[in-house]
Amino acid sequence: MSEDPSASSGSVPTYRPVGGHAVLVEFGATIDKRIHDQVVKLDAALKAAPFEGFVEAVPAYASILICFDPLVADHRTTEAAIAERLTAEVPQTIGAMREVDVCYDPDLAPDLAAVAEASGLSPEDVISTHLSGDYSVFMYGFAPGYAYLAGVPKAIQQPRKPAPIRGIAAGSVLIAGPQCLVSTLTMPTGWWIIGRSPTKILDAASNDRPFLFDVGDAVRFRRISRAEFDARCLA
């Protein structure tokens, strides 16, 4: 997906049946805050007034999956219930501000120099630009705790690498296009690694709140020294 500044903020959604238990509501096909705001609004409307048979809603960048109990509802009644909630007045909710610490030392940021060269900037300029981004959580996916953030400034946006690299450490701060992510597991990635964070994004031992973020939260990054990073990792 890519950003599209011309995307309409009032687009009419399309409905796609998913199996016999869900409807996918699509507002567009781009990473755009105005489109995502519609996703968040529908999610909030469903939480405020769930329809009979509603099971859960799973928001994404430009769509939301609405799951229902097929013994109680079907695609037709679910689409009708969704249409009603699209026009409902929903109190505006403001997500929390979450802070994520990041160290940009070269051995923790193996792609920082490459991003700087491709962007025509110095590594320090890339760091400053990354820190200045207006980030918000658009969705979870791919792996536990993988919160996809939109808001990477255009000056440092880079396409994904041609092939993923294996064994990338948990806590890596990654960018690709307009997206940013802090990895929670050691996994392959084709995104650009520009730092590493000691901030705990995934708490597998917590039953009440395993993830730091909620969809709709704002995120800001704070630069820390190597000494602070090492101390946090040893704690």
Describe this structure in words.
It is elongated and about 55 Å long. The strands form three sheets. A seven-stranded mixed β-sheet has the order 5-13-6-7-10-9-12. A four-stranded antiparallel β-sheet has the order 1-2-4-3, covered by helices on one side. α3 (112-119) packs across α4 (123-131). Mean pLDDT is 90; it is low at 1-10. 23% of the residues lie in helices and 28% in strands. It is built from five helices and 13 strands. It is α+β, with helices and mostly antiparallel strands and 235 residues long. InterPro entries: CT_C_D, Cyclophilin-like_dom_sf, PxpB. It comes from Rhizobium laguerreae. Residues 13-213 form the Carboxyltransferase domain. This is Inhibitor of KinA. Keywords: ATP-binding, Hydrolase, Nucleotide-binding.
Q: What average pLDDT do the residues reach?
A: 90
Largest sheet: 7 strands, mixed
Q: What is the helix tally?
A: 5
Radius of gyration: 19 Å
Q: What strand order characterises the main sheet?
A: 5-13-6-7-10-9-12
Residues in helix, %: 10-25%
Element order: H for helix, E for strand: EEHEEHEHHEEEEEEEEH
Q: Extract low-pLDDT stretches.
A: 1-10
Query: What structural category arises from helix and sheet content?
Result: alpha+beta
Q: Beta fraction of the residues?
A: 25-35%
Distance between the termini: 38 Å
Q: Quick one: how many beta strands?
A: 13
